[in-house]
Amino acid sequence: MPLTILCISGYEKGHDFMRECKEKGCRVLLLTSKSLEDASWPKESIDEIFYIADKNKEWEIKEVIYGISYVARKEKIDRIVALDDYDVEKAAALREHLRVPGMGDTTTRYFRDKLAMRIRAKETGIPVPEFLHVLNYDAINKFARSVTFPYIIKPRLLAGAHGLKKVNNTEELWNRINELGDEKSFFLMERFIPGNIYHVDSIVYENEIRFALASKYGKPPFEVAHLGKVFTSRTVKRGSATEQRLLELNEKVLKAMGLVRGVSHTEFIEADEVRQDSVQPRRDGKFYFLETSARVGGAHLSNLVEAASGINLWREWAKIEILRGEGEYLYPEVKNDYAGIILSLAKQESPDLSAYNDDEIVWRLKKKNHAGLIVKSESYKRVEELIESYTKRFYKDFFATQPMKERPGD
Questions:
Q1: Angle at 106 between CA 320 and CA 18, to 5 degrees
Q2: What is the pTM (predicted TM-score) of this model?
Q3: Does residue 242 contact residue 180 with C-beta atoms inside 8 Å?
Q4: Whole-angstrom Cα distance, residue 121 to residue 140?
Q5: Cα Rg for the chain, rounded, in angstroms?
Q6: Where in the sequence of the chain do the CATH 3.40.50.20 domains occur?
Q7: What burial letters (b/e) apply to 63-96, b meaning 16+ CB within 10 Å?
Q8: Domain 195-397: which topology?
């Protein structure tokens, strides 16, 4: 009897996941937002779609449980998968309630709650920036006396750069904390560390990392979102000391957090250090863990991974969810190309990228008021050259910016 897989997503994504499930003979159900009723879902691969009313993109867990429990009267649901980071807790709550196998509430915390994952990392010896739960006032004052500003105050459960606020002194710190009101316990504060930010995108099966690719952001996502910058990322040079260190740390993180199977997007920072005898920063060589997740990375990073490696993370994730340890997991041969991605808000509704015609371009973003490209090459240097050149051109040709929303859906 075919498996029935319930996919949950408050955003339009995961098309290839659902296609792979359908091609493998599964029955595919989708729970999504009513506002996405006209989205271009791969309906040929979805047996039934259920909609839930939007409330600033936040669904009440109880409403989700009631709705899917009603569906389960006629459907035997074998797998529940959250395609978006904001739906991971909902999927875990449903698994717990319906007793469907998969990641439960406790482990989910390590992949959603930024405070929980930092505490766990620190307990297992993984370097993290100094941090504190925004809770006890005495502890906050002690932290402010002992840890150098600036800090980042960030929400524990939002994704990406939403809700992040940089504070530079005690006055700004308490102003922000007071702004949060009764929400403050849902936030943490940590020392802001300038430096290069990297991400490692992984496939895990039966507690073993089967695939991992390290990449480096151009500008930190915080700067892109809050200061208005062009977004870029590119593959780290293979065989380099940087790649080796990132892959080792990534393995420690995923083992510490307890990811048994699935995909993950994990971020690290390589800290800058200012020498006492110079105003010029230099790398101190130390990497810190920033955050992890049990999902495919956003901002089209799955397309970047596929361009560099030939691995489609969405399809591989689907294979893993279907198997769930009951068979051998095999993935396609990995290519060792290099790839880079560039994305920007555009001042034009339909930006013209025809002048970008290098042979290395393998993907173009099709989205209103956005411009984006992916390039790939066997040469690390060629990808670096193209991304640097395109970044300058994007600022001139397309770049636009708008204020970052406090929360998605605001």
A1: 30
A2: 0.92
A3: no
A4: 21
A5: 21
A6: 4-102
A7: ebbebbeeebeeeebbbbbbbbbbbbbbbbbbbb
A8: D-amino Acid Aminotransferase; Chain A, domain 1 (3.30.470)
* Predicted confidence (pLDDT) per residue in 293-346, tens digit: 999 999 999 999 999 999 999 999 999 999 998 999 988 899 999 999 999 999
- As a dihedral over the C-alpha atoms of residue 259, residue 134, residue 61, residue 59, rounded to 10 degrees, the angle is -110
Of 308, 298, 301, 311, give the one whose Cα is nearest residue 375.
308
What are the residue ranges of CATH 3.30.1490.20 in the chain?
Answer: 130-191
CA 217 to chain centre: 13
How far CA 257 is from CA of 175, 323, 356, in Å, comes to 33, 21, 42
d(CA 98, CA 397): 52
The CA-to-CA distance between both ends of the chain, in Å, stands at 43
Task: Report domain 4-102's class.
Answer: alpha beta
C-beta of residue 297 within 8 angstroms of C-beta of residue 219: no
Tokens of 394: 């994007």
Q: pLDDT below 50 — which residues of the chain?
A: 56, 275-278, 281, 283, 409-410
Transcribe 230-291 into DSSP letters.
-EEEEEPPTT-HHHHHHHHHHHHHHHHHT--SEEEEEEEEEEEEE-TT-SSEEEEEEEEEEE
* Residue extent(s) of CATH 3.30.470.20 domains in the chain: 195-397
The continuous run of DSSP H or E covering 200 comes out as strand 195-205
CATH class of 130-191: alpha beta
- Cα separation, 252 vs 259, whole angstroms: 11
